[in-house]
Amino acid sequence: QLQLVESGGGLVQAGGSLRLSCLASGRTFDSYTMGWFRQAPGKEREFVGAISRSLSTRYADSVAGRFTISRDNAKNTVSLQMNSLKLEDTAVYFCAAHLVNNVYYVLYNTWGQGTQVTVSS
Fold it and tell me: What is the distance between the alpha carbons of residues 113 and 69, in angstroms, rounded to a whole number?
């Protein structure tokens, strides 16, 4: 089972960019579909995007065209490049993993601890 650690969160002005990373421990990282989720205060956790082991990607409508997910299997890392950030992107961002090679499969069973992203005006 993987262990996931997110990094790269912080404070950014609206319109700016931020890149989150998720480092996975484990020798089978390339077998996993990796997802990003976020949770804003008082709101439920929501899907942001995912990348499968075959490099298929999927994004929530709210971030499509602004966010990009990539993975580097040699470094056991999945990244979330966030551009044109909006106030409503403020949330704790989590990475997650599962072993089904399908970006529409929703039962993630491994989660990181999260990293805070705050977008200011």
Answer: 19
CA distances from residue 56 to 7, 52, 97, 104, 115 in whole angstroms, order as listed: 23, 5, 14, 10, 24
Q: Are 113 and 23 in contact (CB under 8 A)?
A: no
**Count, residues in the chain:** 121
Taking only the tens place, the pLDDT of each residue in 85-104 is: 999 999 999 999 999 999 99
What is the C-alpha separation between 81 and 77, in angstroms, rounded? 13
In angstroms, how far is CA 20 from the centroid of its own chain? Answer: 7
What is the DSSP secondary structure assignment for residue 101, as one 8-state letter?
S
pLDDT at 79 over 90: yes
